[in-house]
Design goal:
The chain has 200 residues and is an alpha/beta fold. Helix content is 40%, strand content 15%.
Amino acid sequence: MPDFSYETEASRKGFKFVCGVDEAGRGPLAGPVCAAAVILPTNVSIEGLNDSKKLSEKKREALYDVITEKAIAYSIAFGTLDEIETYNILNATFIAMNRAIDSLKIKADYALVDGNRVPKGIKIPCETVVKGDAKSASIAAASILAKVTRDRLLIEYDEKYPQYNFKKHKGYGTKEHYEAIEKFGVCEVHRLSFLKNVVK
């Protein structure tokens, strides 16, 4: 389970506001990529906090409210569909992460980022943590905020484009989603660069 070991170590080095950063939606065929940055008080206890992928949708939704209430600061940002198509998904993810960090109401002076790649353009000292959403409490919190926010957006897309059933698969490349694309073609929220071999 994630804890505050990484945050505490950063505090020992003299950093005051340590944010955890994670993204959701790098793999789907539709929609933007979403990133969140979260600064948690290191004495906070959030029951059930874990990697968002290991939690049910209902549990993530409940934790979203707890995290946003207890965080010292949090911010959520997107890498847009245009940015994914123009700069590729990795760079669009870095754009979203930087936006989230830069938009924190209390400025972070250190970032713990999930994964093994330092976001290009980051303006503060940064440490990458592989599988960080299962190790760091603040990264786990960020993973939940990013996932819930993106899922809510895809549910909105579902109302506009019900034929794709976005509310079920959240834009990921399921068999049902590919079949819907074959039947109805693509819509304006699909990532064409992810569908080169599908869309003729």
